[in-house]
Amino acid sequence: MADDLYQKGIAKIQELTASPDDKPTGDMDIGAAFRDIAPDLEKYVVEFAFGGIYSRPGLDNKQKVLTTITALVAQGKPQIKMHIKTGLTVGLTPEEIVGCIMHLLPYTGFPSVINALSVAKEVFTELGLTVDTTGVQ
Questions:
Q1: Rounded CA separation 38/34 (Å)
Q2: Do 12 and 55 form a contact (C-beta atoms < 8 A)?
């Protein structure tokens, strides 16, 4: 069962990130950096977060990633960069990502939103993407 859950998690990661078979976790550092002190961390992340939570029905991948981005903005976590990239991979537009982040302004405050927008801008620049601000006042 555990091996099945791990494989299910790897498959979900690859679905979300379009990562190749030879690097199934893509750019996500979900444990390799901690093998010397927590060799089982990757197993827990893959099995629980992706084999369990991300694989649950009820939301599509765009909704799941947008929810994750929302939580990371609220918490001010650096993993937001990877999840913004994942959002683009699953079909979110830069405008949807920025819209989500801006929507959080009254709930999370200016510092959290400004930090997240800085990361989003960095990702968009890296990928040569622009944000259509037509209609924004």
A1: 5
A2: yes
Q: What is the 3-state secondary structure (H, E, C) of the chain?
A: CHHHHHHHHHHHHHHHHCCCCCCCCCCCCCCHHHCCCCCCHHHHHHHHHHHHHCCCCCCCHHHHHHHHHHHHHHHCCCCHHHHHHHHHHCCCCHHHHHHHHHHCHHHHCHHHHHHHHHHHHHHHHHCCCCCCCCCCC
Radius of gyration over every alpha carbon of the chain, rounded to an integer in angstroms: 16
Residues 1-27 have pLDDT tens digits of 667 999 999 999 999 988 877 777 777
Over residues 39-50, the mean pLDDT reads 92
Contacts of 29 (CB under 8 A, 6+ apart): none
pTM: 0.89
- Find, among 65, 60, 64, 61, the residue nearest to 80 by Cα: 65
Which residue in this structure is represented by tokens 């991979």? 89
